[in-house]
Amino acid sequence: MADAPKAPRSFQEIILRLQNYWAAQGCAVLQPYDMEVGAGTFHPATTLRSLGSKPWAAAYVQPSRRPTDGRYGENPNRLQHYYQYQVIIKPSPPNLQDLYLGSLAAIGIDASLHDIRFVEDDWESPTLGAWGLGWEIWCDGMEVSQFTYFQQVGGHDCKPVSGELTYGLERLAMYVLGVDHVMDMPFNDPSSPIPLTYGDIFRQTEEEYSRHNFDGADTAQLLRHFEDAEAECQRLLDFPPLDPKSGKTIIMAHPAYDQTIKASHLFNLLDARGVISVTERQAYIGRVRALAKKCADAFRLTPAGQDAEVAQ
Amino acid sequence: MSDLLIELFSEEIPARMQSRARDDLKSLITNGLVDAGLTYGSAGAFSTPRRLVLSIEGLSPESKPVREERKGPSASAPPAAIEGFLRSTGLTLDQLERRADKKGETLYAVIEKPGRAASVIIAEVLETTIRNFPWPKSMRWGAGSLRWVRPLHSILCLLSDESGADVVPLNIDGIAASNTTAGHRFLSRARFPVTGFDDYAVKLKRAHVVLDSAEREAAIWQGAQNLAFAAGWEVVEDKGLLSEVAGLVEWPVPLMGRIADTFLALPPEVLQTSMKEHQKFFSVRNPKTGRIEGFITVANTETADHGETILKGNQKVLSARLSDAKFFWENDLRVAKAGMGEWLDGLKSVTFHNKLGSQADRIARIAALAAEIATMVGADPALAKQAAEVAKADLRSAMVGEFPELQGLMGMYYARAADLPEAVALAARDHYSPLGPTDTVPSDPVSVAVALADKIDTLTGFWAIDEKPTGSKDPFALRRAALGVIRLVLGNGLRASQLRCLELGNIQHLLFKLNAQEHGDQLGGLLILALLDRANSDFKLMLEPSKYKVPSNLDESRKNENYLDFRKKIWGGYVDEGDGVLAFFHDRLKVFLKDQGIRHDVIDACLAMPGNDDLTLLVKRAEALAAFLKTEDGPNLLQGFKRANTILTQAETKDGVEYSYGADPKFAESDEERALFAALDTAEAAITPAMRAEDFAAAMAAMAQLRAPIDAFFTAVQVNSDNPIIRRNRLNLLHRIRAICSGVADLTKLDG
């Protein structure tokens, strides 16, 4: 890169550069989904919008929670709450690899100095009934992103195929900024009047949530909520499509999918609390997957999820 | 003659799939071309992470014309028959030839296929190959429906001869064949045209791509060794890793780094596994300390700073990984030094199989079994029990959680840390062995006892719950477990009764089931009684910890249905019935011995003998018999034996009596007959002690001496004499042949 941009100085600058870069590539820059999710893929902008034939291009930051990864803010690389940057484009453009490499250049990773590799890593989400083929991308031996061509979501074949990019923002930023402990990473510009590190913002919450996830959460209540979400999802999908009030066909695919997201997060919390045995685990995952499939089925009947021909 | 160059250029192909893909591309294309009537001289396939390449030399420019003639029905045949022929040939009636013969006129279809240009055939074959390529996993991309391992970007397909090179016209889902390709992703981005394979390979190298994976492997290995040598170190060889790394790079650049001192106390296997699994690093050993102190990573690019940034990045990732490993190791050591109680407790909540209980239940069974088996293999029962109790503790360790392939090995380190006897530590490491047909067989008696107990518990357990392997399905790897037992027994020359080991396994499972039941006490008492009633059995070690008491009313108990059921299960039961686990062992043994060149019928002849549950004895006998059958005397003696046996059996059937006793030389009429008497006496005198000493070779050598006298006897003597006394005497003599030979092996089971 002849005019390589200056190296970024903070976590937020990396995020802003990614936002600008993908906006310039024509993606709709969305905001995070307002629910607790385990990964950016759960955002309906990815799961649901990867279904059906309508073209789609979106990019967004998604705060993600993995309760079992809580380490009270002490582990340099592990967090129970972290950020993913997600890009989803349907159909996957032929130059998606180049576009991706362009995004690395935008955040200061110069391909002429680093060793960037596409290493086989097939992606599968048992809870979403989804899978795809692709790679994890290594920069100097460090996994910085996941690159997937979706083949199936919610049990439906993806036609056309969406290309999905997921950046683990903290890890990527730590590498770009040369920081060894996530809590030491500058969140805003270090020369700001009030410089804030990642730790200033998240150390305390990591402690609080670690305690909550491992010891505090009320498991009996979580179990109840899981059942509730499961039942509610089904109930919403059981409504007849015709809405008597508006006279329109309105399938509540998104509200039902919200319940799937809830069930999935509740399962993760129960897992962190250690109350799910190995054998039960599979059963719970199967229950969430069944919900995801039903939501996918429902979404495929909505205007946004139909195939172009059918919609006409 | 022409040369053909094909390059299928795609996004990164998984390293593990490349070798197979090269072979598939070569065979699919060359077979397709040959089937279509072309010939070729030679073909070579190549791969890099982004391309699959085939070069064919000496290809014929077109296929030979083919003339095919098919005889049809008579011209006067019913219309339906003629129509059928037309349909099958795809011709019309006026295209058929009529030829006069004796019956009148017969219809003939003459189909002439003109020769076709190579380029047309290539286009067809390549398209078929691409559309049907046997990738282990393939995908769609964009809005298309074509499947490839990853998105396919371009196809180079060039047919060249002395006059020049032409692109083979071809378009697959919008990808048109061309004569251009691209170089290295970062070092040489421009596309460029090529004129043939040599030009292609040269230009690729200029564009920072080494086409041949063997050349890349050699370059990596050489470069790695040079780097290590310069530092006075040596690279740890790893062929699998080398081939994988060669599939990850087009322009390999090895870089060497040092592992930080703080990690050097980790076990070398942990360093090696972590570096290999997570980062595809080679390990580098310092011969002075014997430790792994360095690593080699292979970059896919050259940089202005000679890889300094890349190495620094890799070093950082390694430190993060090894920090995790160190954290696991130190935590694990703490648990180990405290006696591993935390792990053993934890195993209670890990299900092994829902019908076979938890890992802790399984360990308790294996420990009881190992103590029993110890006495058969010359190990200290208490030590074997102790070893079995901790051998699987490491399954709960953090390190094995992270690197499952280190199970057992970590168990050894942790057993040492817990100050357990070395035999216990070795058993923890070795009790999974042997895992495959070439894996080393443990020889330390304690390890052997635990390894046998582990496998027998698995076999008898899954047998008891009726989860036997069927056809190609063997989800619990029972065939591997049986082979493991066979190799442990044979490899150590063990003289353990297989039947008894299996019975012991069954008893453990019966006890386990009882323990899990309510009102198990009465049943437990009946089981103990059944065990004690078993002749020849000594189950003291196993029963001592049992909470069950022998019932007071013996006579009544012995009529109890449950008692009878136990009795059946313990006394053989599902162990040695037709589809029992012993028969399963014998099947595995046949497969195992067949690989070593011993025929099925030879094994059957030995299996029919008493003591067939002693695998060592069985194999010794089979080996001797197989060797005997390879000598000149062997097959001849077998003929003589079979002849004697046939005559005798026929006479016995006819007369309704068994000729088994009383052959007397005084009724012998000829020298040959007398000689056979003498030879049988000599053979018997030699065979009996040889068999007692289990010296099968000597027994068979003695048996071989019978060949000439038997042959001579049959040549000179008519068995079915008119004199009934002489006839009976001769039949009794034949019986001696049968009896003596059958004591060595059941020769009737042999082919030929």
From TrEMBL, chain A:
Domain Glycine radical intervals: 1-46
Compartment(s) of residence: Cytoplasm
Source organism, top-level taxon: Bacteria
Gene Ontology molecular function: ATP binding; glycine-tRNA ligase activity
PROSITE patterns (alphabetical): AA_TRNA_LIGASE_II_GLYAB, GLY_RADICAL_2
Keywords, comma-separated and alphabetical: Aminoacyl-tRNA synthetase, ATP-binding, Cytoplasm, Ligase, Nucleotide-binding, Organic radical, Protein biosynthesis
InterPro entries: aa-tRNA-synth_II/BPL/LPL, Gly-tRNA-synth_heterodimer, Gly-tRNA_ligase_asu, Gly_radical
Catalytic activity: tRNA(Gly) + glycine + ATP = glycyl-tRNA(Gly) + AMP + diphosphate
EC category: ligase
A Gene Ontology cellular-component term: cytosol
Primary site of residence: cytoplasm
Record-listed E.C. numbers: 6.1.1.14
Family statement drawn from the similarity comment of this UniProt entry: Belongs to the class-II aminoacyl-tRNA synthetase family.
Xref: HAMAP family: Gly_tRNA_synth_alpha
PANTHER family: GLYCINE--TRNA LIGASE, CHLOROPLASTIC_MITOCHONDRIAL 2, GLYCYL-TRNA SYNTHETASE
Name of the protein in question: Glycine--tRNA ligase alpha subunit
TrEMBL record, chain B:
Record key words, sorted: Aminoacyl-tRNA synthetase, ATP-binding, Cytoplasm, Ligase, Nucleotide-binding, Protein biosynthesis
Residue stretches making up the DALR anticodon binding domain: 640-739
Principal location class: cytoplasm
Catalytic activity of the protein: tRNA(Gly) + glycine + ATP = glycyl-tRNA(Gly) + AMP + diphosphate
Entry EC number(s): 6.1.1.14
Molecular-function GO terms, alphabetical: arginine-tRNA ligase activity; ATP binding; glycine-tRNA ligase activity
PANTHER family: GLYCINE--TRNA LIGASE, CHLOROPLASTIC_MITOCHONDRIAL 2 (PTHR30075:SF2), GLYCYL-TRNA SYNTHETASE (PTHR30075)
Family: Belongs to the class-II aminoacyl-tRNA synthetase family.
Protein name: Glycine--tRNA ligase beta subunit
UniProt organism field: Cypionkella aquatica
